[in-house]
Amino acid sequence: MTTTDIERLEQLFSQKSNRAGQARFTNPRASGEKIALSSGFPDPRSMPKADMAESMRLALEKDGEWALQYGANRGYDRLLEQLRIKLKRDQGIECTDENLLIVSGAGQGLAIIAETFCDPGDVIISEEPTWMGAVRHFRNLGVDVETVAVDAGGTRVDALTETVERLIAAGRHPKLIYTIPNFQNPAGVTTTLERRKQIIELARTHTIPVIEDDAYSDLRFRGERVETMYQLDTSGMVIYLSTFSKIIGAGLRLGWIVAQPRFINAFAALKPEGGTSPFVSAAVSEFCASGTLVEHIGELRSVYAGRHAAMLEALGNHMPDDVTWTDPDGGFFVWVTLPDDVTVSQITPGLQEKGVDVSPGTMFHFHGGGENAVRLSYSFADEGQINTGVKVLADEIAAARSRS
After folding, report:
1. Is 90 exceeded by the pLDDT of residue 28?
2. How does residue 31 score in pLDDT terms, banded at 50, 70 and 90?
3. CA atoms within 13 A on the CB side of 302
4. How far apart are CA 240 and CA 109, in angstroms?
5. DSSP states of 308-374 as a string?
6. How far is CA 359 from CA 60, 131, 191, 256, 363, in A?
7. Fewest CB within 10 angstroms: 52, 155, 225, 273, which?
8. Rounded to whole angstroms, how far apart are CA atoms 171 and 8?
9. Which residues contact 178 (CB under 8 A, 6 or more apart)?
10. At the topology level of CATH, where does 3-48+294-403 sit?
11. Mean pLDDT of the chain
12. Are the C-beta atoms of 82 and 238 separated by less than 8 Å?
C-alpha cells in the first residue's frame, strides 16, 4: 500500500477516531516476564479460580437456561440483589434496583456517564493526576478538561471551587466533576470526609453531577473507612461507580453504577450491548451469595498490606533523599516524585533494558505534566520483585544524574 493510499484511508476516520489515535496493543501475560511495577493488575496468585469454577457450576445448575440467554438491560436479577447486600454492608450505601445498572467494567461505566452528559466542547472538571482511562475517555469524547490538583488530603476543594466559579462566570457551566476519593489512582491519597462534604455542597449549589469512581475502597488495609459521597449526598448529584475487577478478577468485566433513577435510565439507553454478561453475572452472584467474596476480600487486604510494606521499605532503603512518595492506606499505587533534575524519559531506556516496568507520570495528565513522577504498583509483583525493581529505579535515577 502506497503512502497516498494510506492518506486516503486516514481521511475515512471520524473525528472521535482521530482523537483516539492508533491503539497500543498490550498483553498482560507479557508482564509476567518482567518486574511489573506499572499496571494495576490484581495479584495473579490470589485469583479465586476454584471458587469461581464452583460458582459457575452452580449458576448453570440453578439457572442455566437464563444465565446463557440474552440478559436484562439493567443487569442479572440475582447480581442486583447481591450488589444491594454488598453495598449496604461494605460501603454503607442503601439502594434499590432502580438505582443500579450493571456495566462491562468501570471503564465502560465512565464512558457511558460522560457520553450521557457531554457533547464535544463541553467542560469536565477532573482531578490531576488521574486514572489514565479517564484521560483517554475524556479525550476521545472531545470535551475540554479543567484540572484540579490533589494533595495529601485528596481533591483540593479550594482549587475546585475557584475553577467552578471561574467557568460559570465565563458562561461555561461544567457538566461533570470526576474524582477518585479512595486510594486515588495514581496518587494513592484519600479525600477527607470534610472535603467530600464540601464537594457535595458545591455540586448541589451549582447542579453539577459528581462521578465518584470507587474501585479500590474494599482494599483498605489500614485506618477507618470514610463515608462515600453517594452515602452523604441528599441532592441526587453523586454518581457512584465501581467494579469487581480489583476484588475478584479483571477478566470478569463487570462493574456497576449507582445513581438516581433518572440518571440510570439515561445511562441504560446508551449501553450498547443491552444486558451485560448474564452468565458471568450469574456466577458472580453465586460467589457473593456463598460468602466467598467477604473471605476473599479479607485475603486480598492481607496480600496488599504485605506488598505495600515491601514497597515502602524498598523506597526507604534505596531512594536518594530528594525523592518523595505517597503512603496510601489501601489500593494498589504509590506516587513517586523524582528529583527536579531527573525526568521519566531519562530513566525509561535503562529500566526497559533491565526488565522493569513503571508507569510514567505523563500518562496521568491531560495537558502535559508528570515528567518528574512515576506511578509504582505493588499489586502484581511479589515482595522480592518489588525490592529489585525499586533498586533498579534508584540506580537509574543516579545514572541519569551522572550523565547530566
Report:
1. no
2. low
3. 7
4. 10
5. HHHHHHHHHHHS-TT-EE---SBSSEEEEEPPTT--HHHHHHHHHHTTEEEEEGGGG-SSS--TTEE
6. 40, 11, 23, 27, 7
7. 273
8. 40
9. 110, 124, 125, 126, 127, 130, 134, 138, 210, 211, 213
10. Aspartate Aminotransferase, domain 1 (3.90.1150)
11. 95
12. no
The helix-helix angle for 49-67 and 292-318 (nearest 10°) equals 140
* 197 burial level (CB within 10 Å; 0-12, 13-18, 19+): middle
pLDDT over threshold 80, residue 402: yes
* Closest to 241 measured CA to CA, from 88, 96, 113: 113
User: What would the mean pLDDT of 172-198 be, rounded to a whole number?
Assistant: 98
pTM over the 0.85 mark: yes
The Cα 109–Cα 128 span in angstroms is: 20
**Interatomic CA distance for residues 51 and 53, integer angstroms:** 5
Longest dimension (CA), the chain: 66
312-368 confidence digits (pLDDT tens)? 999 999 999 999 999 999 999 999 999 999 999 999 999 999 999 999 999 999 999
Amino acid at 26: T
Q: Residue 335: what residue type?
A: W
241, β-bridge pairs: 213, 257
Tens digit of each residue's pLDDT (9 = 90 or more) over 202-233: 999 999 999 999 999 999 999 999 999 999 99
What CATH code is assigned to 63-290? 3.40.640.10
Sketch the domain layout of the chain as residue ranges: 3-48+294-403, 63-290
- Give the residue carrying C-alpha cell 442486583: 80
DSSP conformation letters of 71-82: --SS--HHHHHH
- Determine how many CB atoms are found less than 10 A away from the CB of residue 267: 20
- Closest by alpha carbon to 155, among 236, 225, 210? 210
Place of cell 449496604: 88
